[in-house]
Structure formats: structure tokens, C-alpha cells
Amino acid sequence: MTVKDRFMARALELAARGLGRTFPNPPVGAVLVRGGRVVGEGYHARAGAAHAEVEALRAAGRRARGATLYVTLEPCTHYGRTPPCVGALLPVGLSGVVIAIPDPNPRVRGRGIAALRRARLPVVVGPGAAEARRLTAGYRSLVLRGRPLVTLKLAATLDGRIAAAKAGRREWITGPAARRLVHALRDISDAVLVGAATVRADDPRLTCRLPGGRSPLRIVLVGPRLRLPRRARVLARGGPPTLIVAPVGASARAVAALRRRGIEVVLLPGRGGRVPFPALARALGARGLTTLLVEGGGTVAAEALRARAVDRLILFLAPELLGGEGVPAIGPLGLSRIAEAVRVEHLAVARVGRDLVVEGGLRYPRT
């Protein structure tokens, strides 16, 4: 590992602390190095807070003069909730700047790098680029596509079943280690989504229960009748916020009842009594969400896949078989040939306790 790689690795480690906490901004980490030693570091903790570069400058104080800045994303040049970072960097007297990747946001894209070079600061771009792109995948999806990066999480038996046909109560399929990993996924996600059927069947809390973890925005996709148990845990007071998404024309009485309880209800144009997933994704993008974790159930998973809205799959597989009577993990996709199948690319497989976890990006067939 080169010196540049070592210090950039620390900046990337810091950036990861902001996952799930900075939307609509990207997670960014920064490290100031002088004489081969770190003299200041910081990361963007939340939207509206100081950016990573400014945090690193504050930590370094006078020691920043003559230092090299390692930062995971190109410094910004525009005013938002905070002043542009380039303006804070130029007067310091840095000896150089190392940047993992340019900012894909059209408001920045290359302008920060150009401003630094006009000030005769040596700028290197590229160290840590692959990891920086992974960390900012949700942000890039928001600024380039107007919607969050969508990850579909499924937990199933080896034959693809998520429940026994006559299960009268919630039954865990995966073991404790896999469930802890799901909580870690919630911790780094801006929002988590399920359908009303999952709320009725499982009564999930959809919270992160790891020490020091952060619970995401909870989203429930419902039909026009808003059939949700009054005592559902996602509707309880005192928990993380819950957003109910229903089609325009949904029961006005049910909508009013939820709003009286302080629960936000968003009505979107529907089709066949359902909100199309692309419309949902765009609405969430308009709220600044960069990452969405879809947790179920099979109907919602199928709707997202049919809409080609899922970017990434995380599939937990328990070493069990339920047979054809079990509930399938994914509802019908309307496919008739293998050539129409959704492909999982860049596949990674690991053991998590007694279970397997399969992860990969999705590629949809040409239409």
C-alpha cells in the first residue's frame, strides 16, 4: 500500500461513518497529513453540519499549513446549507490535495478540482476511487437519476420460500448473525420499505437495534383502503418516523385517521389500486433520499423488479427447505423465457452464522 493509499484508506473509513446520516449530501471523509503524520481529520456527519474538509481543518488548526489534504470526494464550489469547501481550503496554505473521485453533481463536477489547480495547488485524483464510488453510489443515483439507490433484501430458505403457507405468527427463517447484519444494513440506509401485507403478517418494527445504530425512515406502501392494524408497531408513537404511501383516491377517512396520529401520508397517482414503483422512487428522490432498503414482502419485491427499479440484491439463505407449499420470496414477474430473467452480476457469497448471504448488482434484459 502506497502512502497515498494509506491515508486515503483512513479518509474512506471516516466517510463510511456518514452512511445513512447525510442525505441528500454524500458521505465524505477527509484527512490532513504533514510530515507523514495525520494532523487533522473529519467526516460529514449530517446534512447541514460542517463538511469533512472543514472538520479536518478545525481539528488541525495551525498545523494545516503545509499539509496535504486527502478527501474522498471533490470539494464543493457552491453555497448550500454551508459555504463552499474550496473557499475554506485556498487560504490555508496546503501543499497539495489528493481526491478519490470527482463529484458527479452537475453543480460541482470538476469545478472544485479546477479551482484548486487555478490556485496552483497540486491535485491528484484517483487513489481509493473504487471504494469512494461504492460509498457514494446512493448520492450518485440521486443527483444523476433523481431517485435513491434501491437495494432489495430477501431472507429465504434454500428453495426460495419466505414463510410456511399456514404460518399463523412470525417465524424467523435466518439465524441471529444474519439478523444482526440486517440491522447493520438499516443503520446505513436512509429509508426502509415494506408493503402493508408484511405489516399485517409480521408486525415489524423496522428499526436498527445495534448499539449506537440509527434507525432509518420507515416507509409502508399500501393500497387504497390503507389496511393497517391500528396497533402496528410501525405506527406507534415515540419511534422513528413512518411514511405511509398510498394511491390518490385512497380512503379519506383512513388517511385522516393516520394524520391525526401524527403519521405522514403521501398520496401518489396509482394504477390498479397500487402506486407504481417508479413514481414512488421519484417521490423519495424529491425528498432527498439517497438509499432505500426494500425488505418485503414478495409482492413489493416483484413490483420493484418488474419496474426495473432495484439496483442491488442482498439475499440471505437459510439451510432449510419448505417446498412448493411455502410462500415464494418474489411474486410473479410475468416472464416466459430464461432470456428474460433478471441477472445478478458481480456475485459475492459469504457465510453468516448458519446462513449464506448472496450479494450482487442487477442487470435487466433489453426490451
Explain the overall architecture.
- The relative contact order is 0.12.
- By secondary structure, the protein is of the alpha/beta class.
- Helix 3 links the parallel strand 3 and strand 4.
- Helix content is 27%, strand content 26%.
- It has 11 helices and 16 strands.
- The strands form 3 sheets. The chain has a 9-stranded mixed beta sheet with strand order 11-10-9-8-12-6-13-16-15, sandwiched between helices. The protein has a 5-stranded mixed beta sheet with strand order 2-1-3-4-5, with helices on both faces. Strands 7-14 form a two-stranded antiparallel ribbon.
- The radius of gyration is 23 Å and the shape is globular.
- Give the low-confidence spans: none
Gyration radius from CA atoms, angstroms: 23 Å
Give the termini separation.
Answer: 44 Å
> Beta-strand percentage?
25-35%
Counting H and I runs of at least 4 residues, what is the number of helices? 11
Strand order of the largest sheet: 11-10-9-8-12-6-13-16-15
Summarize the structure.
With 367 residues, this protein is an alpha/beta fold. The chain is built from 11 helices and 16 strands.
List keywords for this structure.
367 residues, single chain, 9-stranded mixed beta sheet, 16 strands, 5-stranded mixed beta sheet, alpha/beta, globular
